[in-house]
Design goal:
By secondary structure, the chain is an all-beta fold. The chain contains no helices and 25 strands. The strands form three sheets. Strands 3, 4, 5, 6, 7, 8, 9, 10, 11, 12, 13, 14 and 15 form a 13-stranded antiparallel beta sheet that branches. Strands 16, 17, 18, 19, 20, 21, 22, 23, 24 and 25 form a ten-stranded antiparallel beta sheet that branches. Strands 1-2 form a two-stranded antiparallel sheet. Keywords: Hydrolase, Signal. GO terms for molecular function: hydrolase activity. Pfam families: CrtC, Lipocalin_9.
């Protein structure tokens, strides 16, 4: 993690002439940026703006510069539970596989799963700067930090939903910038609780769905030395939202969490390395990659120990154009948070090879 903090403490961000990186620890609370009023009130400024940064950014010079926006959902319909994921990302400095979007659906009740991966020509893809206005064949995503509308069309199904955030936005690491691996800074914020409703159609059957979504917005340079990562999003019964990052680069290993409280304050804390508590490996028949499907997550500073497991079925891998893949799976957790019994639902994202 960039800097490890005790409860209710945040990292101060030091500006350099060309890049931004984490520095000293400051012993004061910081207030989150709300979706309606994206301003910091603690004296430590946020470096992301949920009102403006939903739009596309002017790319840096790096070939691995990317813009990414996605949401994961837990919704219900007709007595069944579904997990949804919609993701679009662009690498505008690449010649191949530069514009892409994906859609996946898991019926957690029956285990049925399907995903769709669309490669798009640059001329057919639009993501406006300064606002959320994305259009591509089969995908429309518009709106702002108050309300969004998403439509997806695939050969086997479709999605038409409205998303409305409740509560404050989450700036990762409390400021919205952190080192993803080996000193390479990344920008990221979330709208971690969005009321979700609309229509899901799979294999000709229509479902009127309702539930919640977690939206993540990320951009910057993807480190070429990044070997693997795990990301998890967890919502606690008391309203706390937790985002866990566990990354392994050529020269760095970081495992940490941003905790957003309902009042807008943060904890940024150490997490024990995720690999230490990973078990029950599953190997993808499509790519040959291996992923764990169970984790014991320990956050000592928060008296937290959680058992996380993939739900539905383990085959929730999305394949990539280079022949690889990454896991984007629904999960459930039980255990103790701040010493109290908790349970809930979340998503787990994993890339790289996880053979023990």
């Amino acid at each position: 993690m960039p800097s490890i903090l005790a409860r209710r403490r945040v990292a101060a961000l030091v500006a350099a002439t060309a890049t931004l990186a984490f520095s000293a620890v400051v012993s004061s609370s910081v207030q989150a940026v709300s979706s309606a009023a994206p301003t910091a009130t603690s004296g430590i400024p946020a470096l992301v703006d949920p009102a403006a940064d939903l739009g596309r950014h002017a790319p840096g010079p790096q070939q691995t510069w990317f813009d990414s926006i996605y949401f994961t959902s837990s919704v219900r319909a007709n007595g069944q539970e579904f997990g949804l994921q919609v993701h679009t990302r662009i690498l505008p400095n690449r010649d191949e596989a530069a514009y892409r979007w994906t859609f996946s659906v898991i019926n957690k009740t029956t285990g049925w799963y399907r995903d769709y991966d669309a490669m798009v020509e640059q001329k057919d893809y639009r993501w406006s700067e300064g606002k959320l206005d994305i259009k591509a064949p089969g995908l429309s995503w518009t709106g702002d930090a108050v309300r969004q509308s998403v439509q997806v069309e695939t050969p086997w199904g479709s999605l038409d939903v409205q998303l409305a955030p409740t509560g404050p936005a989450m700036n990762y690491a409390s400021t919205g910038i952190f080192n993803l691996a080996d000193g390479v800074p990344n920008y990221e914020f979330a709208l971690p609780e969005m009321q979700t409703s609309g229509t899901l159609v799979v294999d000709g059957r229509k479902h009127q769905i309702r539930g919640t979504s977690w939206l993540d917005r990320q951009w910057g340079e993807m480190p070429t030395s990044l070997l693997r990562w795990t990301w998890m999003n967890l919502g606690m019964p008391n309203g706390d939202k937790i985002a866990i990052w566990d990354t392994i680069g050529a020269e760095s290993k970081d495992s940490w969490a941003t905790v957003l409280h309902p009042d807008g304050s943060y904890d940024v804390v150490d997490v024990e390395p995720v690999a230490q508590g990973a078990s029950r490996q599953w190997t993808s028949p499509a790519t040959g990659q291996t992923y764990p499907t169970r984790w014991r997550i320990r956050i000592p500073a928060l008296q937290t120990e959680l058992d996380v497991r993939v739900t539905g079925n383990p085959d929730q891998e999305i394949q990539t154009p280079d022949g690889g893949g990454y896991l984007e799976a629904t999960a459930a957790f039980t255990g103790k948070y701040n010493g109290k019994n908790v349970r809930g639902e979340n998503y787990v994202e994993m890339t790289g090879e996880w053979k023990p």
